[in-house]
Automatic annotation (TrEMBL):
PANTHER family according to UniProt: ASPARTATE DEHYDROGENASE DOMAIN-CONTAINING PROTEIN, L-ASPARTATE DEHYDROGENASE-RELATED
Organism the protein comes from: Streptomyces formicae
Keywords: NAD, NADP, Oxidoreductase, Pyridine nucleotide biosynthesis
GO biological process: NAD+ biosynthetic process
InterPro entries linked to this entry: Asp/hSer_DH_NAD-bd, Asp_DH, Asp_DH_prok, L-Asp_DH, NAD(P)-bd_dom_sf
Pathway noted in the entry: Cofactor biosynthesis; NAD(+) biosynthesis; iminoaspartate from L-aspartate (dehydrogenase route): step 1/1
Binding site for NAD(+): 117, 186
Active-site annotation: 216
Function in brief: Specifically catalyzes the NAD or NADP-dependent dehydrogenation of L-aspartate to iminoaspartate.
Name by which UniProt lists this protein: L-aspartate dehydrogenase
Source lineage: Bacteria, Bacillati, Actinomycetota, Actinomycetes, Kitasatosporales
Amino acid sequence: MNATRKVGLVGWGAIGRVVGTALAEHRVPGAELVCVVDNRPLGEGAPAPQLSFDEALERCDLIVEAAGQGVVREWGERVLASGTDLLIASTGALTDEELAERLLAAGPGRVYFTGGAVGGLDLLQAVRALGPLDEVRLTTTKLPATLEQPWMDDELLSRLRTATGPVEVLAGTARDIPVRFPKSTNVAASVALAVGDLDTVRVQVVADPGAHHTRHVVEASGPHGAYRFEVAHLPDPGNPATSQVVPYAVLRSLAALAGRTGQIL
Ligand SMILES: NC(=O)C1=CN([C@@H]2O[C@H](COP(=O)(O)OP(=O)(O)OC[C@H]3O[C@@H](n4cnc5c(N)ncnc54)[C@H](OP(=O)(O)O)[C@@H]3O)[C@@H](O)[C@H]2O)C=CC1
Ligand SMILES: O=C([O-])CC(=O)C(=O)O
């Protein structure tokens, strides 16, 4: 029988609260919440002790990152080098290819990525074994306020704020888009991780004041076939940049890591 996974959760926000509560209520057989790490003092708000990152590494064998790309950059290698596994939500950090290579080579802990807000990544990863895809496109449509960034000039901000219908905010590749929208377009890096190339994945970011649902459309084609995955998620009410489904994707990843039988892999 597998030992119970001792989980340290980094980030007590839209994703972390749902994941941490489910773990504390023993809703993931084979996994227990040992501690929470967050920038803010959580007081009695968290269902497990709030610890420093170093303390978490001493007590846990699996760290769940639900905090931001900076945590992956700052802590990823140390987590893995300590022998602790790491489940990453902020896949956008992997647009730094040197970091990505180091994380994939690090150990003895193992690094995993949650599918997060997009679907079809398992199939795209399988298709890759048949040969490279010719074309991969991701179109992400979100509420304008969730896409505002400090680097935007007044003209672009005004275009976002006065939009009455869908407007393209930026187009690029999975190499540059998750850097520009670090809390909102990790999905682009996730698609790139599945297909194995940042530059092949063309990304269009669209702001739409009518986007009651966040949409991600992944279209891919190659000599072996054509693939299209479209999702429309309700945003998290407290943090509309994040889709409501994301913590449940993390919980599903955790269930697989905890060895639950009957999982679709
Ligand atoms: N793969 C995917 O599909 C998706 C990935 N994500 C990723 O997940 C991240 C978390 O999402 P979400 O829960 O919605 O974000 P929230 O902003 O709601 O919560 C993040 C929490 O983590 C804390 N935090 C940030 N940096 C650190 C740090 N260095 N050390 C400790 N705590 C920290 C934040 O505190 P403070 O606010 O004080 O910084 C905040 O409490 C996003 O930033 C994004 O990168 C999100 C959605 C989808
Ligand atoms: O939750 C979503 O729909 C996507 C998201 O924020 C991200 O990819 O960072």
